Amino acid sequence: MAKPTSDRRWAFDTLAIHAGQAPDPQSGAVMPPIVLASTFAHERLGAHRGFEYGRTGNPTRNTLEACLAALEGGSEALAFGSGCAAITALLQTLRPGDHVVACDDVYGGTFRLLDKVFGPLGVVTSWVDMTDLDNVRAALRDDTALVWIETPTNPMLRIIDIAAVAKISHAAGALVGVDNTFATPALQRPLKLGADVVAHSMTKYLNGHSDVIGGALITSDEPLAERLRFIQNAAGAVLSPFDSFLVLRGLKTLPLRMERHCASAASLAAWLEGRPEVERVFYPGLPSNPQRALAARQMSAFGGMISAVIRGGLPAVEAFLGSVELFTLAESLGGVESLIEHPATMTHGSVPRAQREAVGVVDGLVRISVGLEREADLRADLVRALEATALA
Questions:
Q1: What do you get for the CA distance between the two ends of the chain, in Å?
Q2: Residues that are catalytic
Q3: Which of 251, 267, 288 is the last residue of a domain?
Q4: Residues 205, 345 within the same domain
């Protein structure tokens, strides 16, 4: 029995459950089996059943990749052992002397890759505030090979106009990549807005259960896909079959989970804006956010992430983080449980202080990943923690 493999006919919720996944032809198993084999038998010299070696291809990983491609509206997806491995594979398509334009408010791991790993190899990066399109135009050069976007950005939750940046970048001959980790294809589909390739840390919302490290690239650019597939096989940073199975499991509930994440985050963000202990709240859906209209235009909802500046600086933040009970102080995001972290010393600790403070990552900033707990319980936990800041 065939299963849907594209988004032309079926709704996103249906694709999340069925895309690329038919019952196992041998056993009839409804869930795709986990194929743990490291190598595969050849029927005769030069002939096999589509699989040769586990690094090159695996049935479980291929099933996940087919589902990911359908959800993002791309023709091909590639699953990697981490989000950083996925971004690394994309950057390995560049050559010494190539120029990258990247948004200045970006995940610390992406900054580390571009600045500390590929910088010494001759890839030059310009960091710009892409919320101003004139900055993008001014940064583009004849040797610009890639324009890298995060939207919403990490951790300031700024919104970048994907369609406008893609149009400007393509006119200059540059590819456009979008890290869609915060929004997920449930809320935002960058390929349909003009991006050439989409990246995910599947560790986050796509898996959704804080028990997998994984990454993905999705594209409809066939030459780029072919190059990335070569790099995936040659470099070997592939996702394991068991982790592929776990992400497939997580994708089936992604639409429902994102609804709850978004609803609770919107409510908590509006409430936090009224708390005297909070200096400022960053959330795309707030009426006070000047980018709300842009976010509403390219996203179907505003996401499950909130950032906020606690009054009193680092001492108040330490008291606040030391008083939460339901929120776990930990890096990462997008799981069923609520997490909270301090970007300046945790996820963005590799970014030089002056550079991170220039985009707003100050000592008082905390980043909140709103989970699936009862929203009233989360609010009560935050009340207790905010009240503790008065003693700092």
A1: 63
A2: 55, 107, 179, 204
A3: 251
A4: no
